[in-house]
Amino acid sequence: SSGINAEYGDYTLSSLLDYNKSDKKERVFEVSLFAEVLCEMFQRHFALLILKALIEADGESEEQEDEKVGKRIRKDSLTSDAIRKDSESDKTETSSGPDTK
Questions:
Q1: I need a surface site. Which of 19, 56, 74, 99 has the fewest CB within 10 A?
Q2: Which residues, in sequence order, are CB contacts of 17 under 8 Å at separation 6+?
Q3: What angle do CA 45, 48, 49 make, to 5 degrees?
Q4: pTM of this prediction?
């Protein structure tokens, strides 16, 4: 053994982040620094996952809105086509009917 006294145990990230700033030992500083960096990596990772989920959810709602608008446009188009055909058939009937003078 090279004279290093190491303690082994299971520690949560939260307990590693709960350190005293008065600890001046090098190994305590290194573990604390590692815990801080690991915590920031987790925060970044999960923040990106949340952002991705929000963007996908927003995209789905926009697609649903686009579908609703498309259905309304098609419905309006069909209605206006039907009205146009009716008015054209009325014009045809009046022009082809008997002349009353």
A1: 99
A2: 32, 35, 36, 39
A3: 90
A4: 0.50
